[in-house]
Amino acid sequence: MPAAPSGFSDDTTDHHFVPAPCQVACPVGTDAPSYIAYIWEKQNEDAFEAITATNPFSSICGRVCDAPCEPACRRESSDGAVQIRNLKRYIMDQLGPNYQPAPVAVTRKETVGIVGAGPAGLTAAHDLCVAGFGVDVYEMTDRVGGTMIWGIPEFRLPPGVIDEDVERLKQKCPGLKIHLNSPLGEDVSLDQLKAQHDAVLLALGSWWGKPMDIPGESDDRVVDGVSFLRRINAGERPQLPETVVVVGGGDVAMDACRVAKRLPGCKTVKVIYRRGADEIPAR
């Protein structure tokens, strides 16, 4: 019987690279192991490049990302997950405000129209520009950012941080044109976009709260959290009753709690959640 082979075979047919669990868990595939290693070696500029390679909103994600990478971290079962999101924020706070990205060239004759200048629309615009396409983004409001601007309180995500990421995106993508105050169906139609561009992407966002479909929900005193936060971010400061009840335990619910406590009239906020306190998903 011949001896069993030792070592690695020269035949690499069945060999393939398996990324780290944290990178697999990231919706945009951020190479967390690389940027953490760069930070350890004090190579912060290389860490910045690794962070922003697939994520044009890295400064924002350093603050409000749900960080699915951390529960997936291999160290979670030993001494606790690496603080991946906080490390991202550290690098972006250190280098982000003054970083000048190299512009990407428009190399394709085809153009793409995108409806919506929120995180989905702008991320798609970034990736298409990197691929060489010219991109026009049509936004119905007077500001860029979508839910990042209208749905997250300023005390949790300062507008300056959003502006920083957006300006970096514009510098990197000279083939990107953003048209504000251009609602679909009013200033521009879908047929017009189809005629002007080779492809159209609808990134309309989630502007509506989730109804509970329970008795009493139609009462004038009941408002969904998404609409409430949008009104506040638009500058409204309504007078609230002394006691406010928030139903839910997610990020929107907790943001609504904290906003309500800052508004005139409110003294007490009560949270009603269907599960236990240790199961509240808000970060």
From TrEMBL:
FAD/NAD(P)-binding domain sequence ranges: 112-275
Annotated ranges, domain Dihydroprymidine dehydrogenase: 20-94
Species of origin: marine metagenome
Protein name as it appears in the record: Dihydroprymidine dehydrogenase domain-containing protein
Single GO molecular function: iron-sulfur cluster binding
A Pfam family: Pyr_redox_2
InterPro entries documented for this protein: DPD_II, FAD/NAD-bd_sf, FAD/NAD-binding_dom, Glutamate_Synthase, Helical_ferredxn
